[in-house]
Amino acid sequence: MGGETTAFGHHGSGGSVAFADRARGLSFALTRTRLVGPDNGTTRLLADAVRAGA
Questions:
Q1: pLDDT per residue rounded down to tens, the chain (54 residues)
Q2: Within 13 Å, how many C-alpha atoms sit on residue 46's CB side?
Q3: Cα 17–22–25 angle (5° rounding)?
């Protein structure tokens, strides 16, 4: 998660993603009902939204 030592996460099969940041008290998981490729942009959009404080 951008080099933060308090954050960790992992992308999963079919476009799923999960991450947490202990310092911010934040966790997030996204699971899919339809498999998608790993480079579908969802992970980047979510990470950008979290960084922006959305």
A1: 455 688 888 877 777 888 898 888 988 888 877 766 656 677 677 777 777 875
A2: 20
A3: 90
Q: Which residues contact 47 (CB under 8 A, 6 or more apart)?
A: 1, 2
pTM, rounded to two decimals: 0.52
According to DSSP, residue 33 is labeled S
| Rounded-to-integer distance, Cα 18 and Cα 30, Å | 6
Both tokens assigned to 28: 């997030």
Alpha-carbon 36 to chain mean position? 15
- Separation between Cα atoms, residue 38 and residue 41, nearest integer Å: 8
Beta-bridge partner residues of 18: 10, 29
